[in-house]
Amino acid sequence: MPETSDILIIGGGVAGLSAAAALSAHCKVTVLEAEDQIGFHASGRSATMLHYALGDRLVRALTLASRSFFDSPPDGFSEVPLGRRTPVLVFAREDERAALDALEADISLFVQLERLDHRGVHGLCPLLREDAVHGIADRDGIRIDQHALLQGYLGQLRRNGGVLRTGSRIAAMDHRSAIWTVSTEKGDHHSAPLLINAAGAWADAVAALAGVAPIGLQPKRRTIITFDSPDGTSVEGLPFTKTVGDELYFGGESGRLFASPMDEVPSDPCDAQPDELEVALAAYRMEERTSVTVDRIHSKWSGLRTFTPDRRPAVGLAPDAEGFFWLAGQGGFGLQTSPAVARIVAAMILGQAWPVADVSPESLSPARFA
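Above: the chain's sequence. Below: its structure in token form.
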């Protein structure tokens, strides 16, 4: 006999676990994760900053609605802080000033920014080259501890009586008499009237198993490297620093520096591994934009960031299947928006009051891709 629940969630990344934590206070929830650990492919491989230079106005609204959760987590959510205050600096050359002006106008709707001249830019990040002459700074950014966040959601799920099953890769799905039955590769069976597809890069493949039309998800690989800071240079207090365009970001990491060329390389769903071209590009762009020489790379990794065609998340019931709920396409902003998105999922499923005034259900609905 299948193990029965009120809600089955496929995917143990931040999307699935945050929704599970919110829903498990009201019903029986089971999370099925294909890997042997949570957050393996995307959530655990992120640069983990909460900032507003990411995405569009909808993403920024979700980030703003999530901010209070990181500032004041629920009692007992985590034994350690969910993050630490880290300034965010976006800088520009003279020929990039118009782009910086436009970004500042968009971001300033959501957070207080400080406009910086050459002196202010280099005072905040002395590693930049002299041609970095303009900047905007958010002094109140948060470097998220993704491990603490994921474990916090998992703890909530378990305290509420919910269940996580790792090593449970889906083999088959069936919908009969208003019940979804999911079979795993190891022969386990689970059933529930509502199934939430939070499978990240695999979400379209999960939909295909269920006989549900895909929404056109595109996984994209992003690469990060770590390396030594210049002799005599401390990374303590260094901001999370990025170009005004999607070219480079870098910051401090355990006494060293990390950097990403902000690559978006289309990929099949997989265990993403760094490509030497993107590794070299990260080092090149770091040397082009800063005074740092990348002599030796200490570590490198890649993760998948999965986007819908319009780069906004898909959250809501599928228009072509009863009891099939999409929770996918959170790109690189899944961690920082997870508190708000989880509340939205709960509102949609449980009939609770809508939690984010600046975001409509229609703007998230997967029906827009039908």
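The mean pLDDT is 95.
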